[in-house]
Amino acid sequence: MARSTTxxxxxxxxxxxxxMSPAIAQERLQSGSAPAAAANATxxxxxxxxxxxxxxxxxxxxxxxxxxxxxxxxxxxxxxGTFTQGIDMDMPIGVLVPLVDGAPQxxxxxxxxxxxxxxxxxxxxxxxxxxxxxxxLVIAVGVNTVYIRQLGNWAAMAPSKALLDLAPADPTTxxxxxxxxYDIAFRLQMQQVPAATRGMLIAQIRQGFEQAMEKQDSADAxxxxxxADGTMKQLEQxxxxxxxxxxxxxxxQPNRNVSxxxxxxxxxxxxxxxxxxxSKPIPSQFASVIRDDAAAYYHAASSISPExxxxxxxxxxxxISSLGGALENxxxxxxxxxxDIRAMVDRVADLAIASIEEGRADVGALLLADQNDFRFVFGxxxxxxxxxxxxxxxLAAKVENETDAPRFKFDQSTYKGVTMxxxxxxxxxxxxxxxxxxxxxxxxxxxxxxxxxxxAVGRNSDSxxxxxxxxxxxxxxxxxxxxxxxxxxxxxxxxxxxxxxxDTITAMINALLAAPDQGQLTAIQDSVPNGQxxxxxxxxxxLKAISAAVMQSRQGNGGxxx
Length: 562
What we know:
Structural class: alpha+beta
Distance between the termini: 27 Å
Radius of gyration: 29 Å
Shape: globular
Largest sheet: 20 strands, antiparallel
Number of strands: 22
């Protein structure tokens, strides 16, 4: 999910672009209707919506009750009832942000057929409204002047009178995919931002980058510059090639969770569109980690486009170069140790690049937990599993004479074409919790196949590793998201409680036992044309558990933390 996160970060940076002001003319918001004062206006670059007052009151009451703070929801309801009389309680509220002469200008749109009655009730805060000859109302909010105009079933508010001419009579068409679908949401249309404005933003960021680089006087400054320059180029690509970015947060009462939705799309035909468009679900060796009884699992299997391969290769090489510079400055290492570490890192990097160049990513991880039971298994596609084994063998040879070095046992057996290895390390007697979790000796099971590497930790976890190998050929389809994560907190807490209990864990367990779910968090990432979308669901149980932990901490009875 890393590329989607990068896209979201770039999108937030791109929002800054609309705050800059080059003198450039753009199309009008309402062609042919805007006066000269607003002629150089774009369509809304940014649309922000709040759900209707009824939706907000119901959702906030539900959420505050779920986390044990119903009085906060009651306070919001009281205030909303006081200050929203006259507003259509079932329609969303919006803010439209076009660029006028290159500068962002907000226009609020309120669902009401009688804005005068609303302003009358607010006179204690704003004073009486003045009415201009054309019916435009004017109020003072602090040191700011706000202009207001009734437009049918809506009222528009803006910091200048000319902006009101840009407000549509019915803004609901701009709310598609936002509005009452969420409690709060926004959509940024990057291509509505003039190219000159985007160029100025990039220039300012690059100027800051150059200033930061001038202050670099360390030996690895060149490597640091190389990484930063690569990041700068990627950011420039995101700013120029992004088409749209959407974010929405919704308190979902029927499904008893809080959801966060995001989507990102690039302009068709651009290298950025090729990167995201080339990411599609593929058959997976590790899809069996997707299990209902899991305390947690993560799975991702997708194709990788040539453009993404190229970009990842460049980024990885820059990172390795920077690491080499850092090793040169590490005083605690002698020349031979630096050379050994650098050689090992280069081998790992070469293997990673070779794996990426095969145009696919396939990985799965599974955690099973309950009272007195903890098992974790991991599997990943690699270009050469035998090279993984050789890297570990060479590492073992380097550390075999070190004090308290782990014991490596290679080539112990073969299971369905996968060679089994094991790493053992004695756990000191003073580490009581670790011994209760893993026994006197920690065992890490490793399996290396022709195109895969496996790892398992926990008592009897070798059987779980073999189970993952057994199921590696079962998934021949690709009817699933490109990435998904699920965490269920209750079994993890039960296991933690069996190792060492404390009042905080007990409070969270009790909260979850009374909750509609076991403390679930899910995240799903999927491909869309020229982009990606993601959704995160935070279950009511997880909200209750967090609230219980906070309340227990406030009482000063948290005991040992975990």
